[in-house]
């Protein structure tokens, strides 16, 4: 049995905070020797067992890689260490508390303070907590940037030893981008959340005026208690259906733009690009509203209001000594719209599940497109049919329009119908064939000239 | 601060399509120099900033690795480049539009065209889109094959620099397999989908004849409106329960086969192997049908038909001046079957969640088996009890048989009962002990001889 | 086209069981030459094509790395191979059937048997099955430990070639820890499962006595049928709400401890640490009970008992010739508590989804904290409001207390209210400011002295 190998590498960590301690522990577990640099080398409480603590001057001497786990505002002791740090790899792991706090990135600032060292930005996207939890769970990527290839390689090696994946993101100029990452708060969700907030507000106001306002002003009845469930159950399905349609609209617009341009080698307008990029988020929000609609619908028979209304129907039926005739058409209609809704919702849940990262990663491109496109349009079709059958012929009835305002379900149908009609046009054989060729790289002869050369002569890989 | 290191490697990309552009961008971000080879080197519209474009002859000169991001049918310019490509690494990233389009794989064809280069197949399972999205999300594996170890290593190094994982799949003969992967459409789901389609069709036909057909022919009533919900809510639970049982049946058959063979070192028949491999998919489809059953059940009180039926019951109760006596047994029965169903469904959802890749990857083998086997049988038991309690004693009643056809829930119980009985036999101590020993490598003395040597003398690791 | 490169490495595997065969197949696919060592080298049935089988003496000769895929109790042939194994890397992949079966780990035992070889523990956390399934799914980590750095590196290289991630966990002393991992059965779930079992039992007993016992003893009515749904639907929501509150209580206690200590650099008591570590599991169990509560609530209108009760209400209303007056306040109350419940449950589902490994890995620290903390407290607030509105003013009513026992929903409100009140205190500006400073590394002057030096002069990175 051999003793611990003599080649063991030493890594130095400046700073004994949470991140420094967690990193040191993982490095020790991975077989590195760890030396902490500290202003007070005698204070080693809470540091992992097996690590040494030295002064800032001594600690880096035997190490090639030094992690600077200190807040940027405490970098001022570093310039005095220049002789010791010359030619060594300084890893900046720091993050700021807000974005744009400083003009240059922490790593570039560090590089100006200690120009004799090779500064690498890394590990700032990894939290102390995920370093500690380690084990089978922490399969996160370490994003790395820096100007010196060998210095980056040294950090990549350490990253791999810790069982993490390293992604080289380029030169130190990228550092400010990496430092922004941990401060982001759902950047891709902003636009979809704003759209859904706007739609929720607008539809709520509409049904509030139409249902509660009209009843108060014209019928002199206080129906404000309907806000909690009846109105909510008009707002959520309307917004869900519109947002589901909004997922598929940009793809259709893009197809028409490509058909008009006669090529796929022209950039889409910015607003279309941004819209295309947040389709997944739009769809997931629509799913959330659809779930709320399902729950609000299923509690209907438990509501006091419904219990009361039904009791009165039964009582009046008996008092008037009527028999309640069975209406076959109504049975068909009621069962059909419920059935369409259930099938549409179940497919929608399936779409949601396949957009989970671990599921979509296990699909190949063809499978992913099949689900998100074919099954997606089927979902939209079922949900639109659900709304149509729910309304049935009530749009013919004058009583459906209060103050000339149509019922909310009619508004909900506008965008989905536009999307479905446009999609039907796009899958006409003549258009579909042209579009497929364009997407394989073909260009309309007249248009190709715009790129100076007839690139269309050589279709390229998708 | 050091300038960009001089050792920076150059990578060449033939082809400026979507994939070529996305790959170039990632390579530039990772610090490589990128040179595009193009028929029209002046046309660099849309190419990532920082990349150079040259002619096919010039571009590969300074690079060791050349990515061929061009459709196979445009490979014809490559043979003329032989002198420039000699000894270099050619990475074939191409995919075809359908399977079996050509007799040999694209990579082998490329290798025949340019025999002086080392051809490596790689990156064809990665889409341009997932290269672009990059960042924290794209943790997909790059499958690699090729005949030259050094050439493969060069591609592995590039893969790692891009933050991706490389999997060496062997020699270039495997290329056709890798080229098939992106063209697959749910290969493991085919059999389960066919089974469920067959079951759905058969059960639907059965209940259609029994419920709608019988009512039309014998009772002269049109009950066709029942198709939308009442029949659907018989078809889905029946298929769900049968398919859940079909998940566990192959494991039981395999156990009996092993007991009969007296060894685990004999291959199962092919049909059993195929069946075992799609158990997860069978179970997930069963879960989908169970979810539909739950939704169809919960909308019952909202249906017009139910509202009408209940109104008539209330009216007739009052007209006949009866008091509605409370039947304690009926209350027990109704509540018990609902309760069993709810618990069974909740456990079923738990099984579904643990089969998500990211969840099952976080479990060790023992935990996975505990959930999928122990909790799985508990789910089957609860769901079978749910169906039994639903039927109660109605199977004794002649009116449950129309045209001698039993109710669909009775059919649903056949397979689950067989599975549960066989499982009960298997956990009898005497059989269980033998089976455990067989699975640890023990072989029945008489049977072991079939492998020439008494391997049973040395049990091997599971 | 070049032939297979001559540098191809040879790997030896002792043992031809399931694991040995699966590993050999993967190694062959990755381009290694594989030689099996076997007591009976003529018996090569079931071994992967392309592998050789030799005697234990011959097999290791050309290989540097030898996998020992044999049960520990069969290690006794290894000491006789010492001359052949000298200086080679022996990889111990073995697992035991139960924990603490032997005093020292299998790998350390192997190292004592063959001291001339470098023993590395690895691959024991990977199952034969996940090696076989391979492809896009098996992104599991290989945990490695050993005393020799070069030996470990050789195993790391093989791991990478197989497309797996290697995590170096340190010296061979860690081996017993790695050998325990595959034998664990949900270690983090034990405490939460015990807490929930205790709560379920206690609340069930409470409502059993209060509802069924009281009715039997005082009202002389047999209400035991209520156990299946009515009681279950009191037990599950109570336990769900209490456990949701228990998720947030330890964080609040920790904040008060830090405020009292005036520093974050002091360890929490052990029970608090354990509690903090299982918050996720507590929350997921609470979500499971909340789902059961939702399902039990939604089946209410299908129950025979409810149908009977409603029929009697309608009949008595008609017999007494009453009109059923609409009570606006009751409508508000009924709709509000349902609405709060639905919104709370939907948010709870969102929390559950973000705790899936693949989703939480895609979030940065700030996003994760936003969801789990801000949205978590909002969920608790909504669910508590749901319970309050459900009860309304019934706590004022003497009939709500049977045998002086309050209704179960009142018990359910105790812990959530405590948590919400304490949290409100903590977000008071004065306390919040101090707490934020403490969490950024600041220490109360009087307390800092406890660590000998004024470390507070240098706030450290989080």
Automatic annotation (TrEMBL), chains A, B, C:
GO biological process, one term: iron ion transport
Transmembrane segments: 191-209, 235-261, 282-306, 337-363, 375-392, 412-431
Keyword hit for Iron: yes
Cofactors that this protein relies on: FAD; heme b
Domain Pyrroline-5-carboxylate reductase catalytic N-terminal positions: 10-96
GO MF terms, alphabetically ordered: cupric reductase (NADH) activity; ferric-chelate reductase (NADPH) activity; metal ion binding
Domain Ferric oxidoreductase: from-to ranges: 238-383
Compartments, as annotated in UniProt: Endosome membrane
PANTHER family in UniProt: DUDULIN-RELATED (PTHR14239), METALLOREDUCTASE STEAP4 (PTHR14239:SF5)
SUPFAM superfamilies, alphabetized: NAD(P)-binding Rossmann-fold domains
Cellular component GO terms, alphabetical: endosome membrane; plasma membrane
Swiss-Prot/TrEMBL catalytic activity: 2 Fe(2+) + NADP(+) + H(+) = 2 Fe(3+) + NADPH; 2 Cu(+) + NADP(+) + H(+) = 2 Cu(2+) + NADPH
Protein name: Metalloreductase STEAP4
Endpoints of the signal sequence: none
Keyword Transmembrane helix part of the UniProt annotation: yes
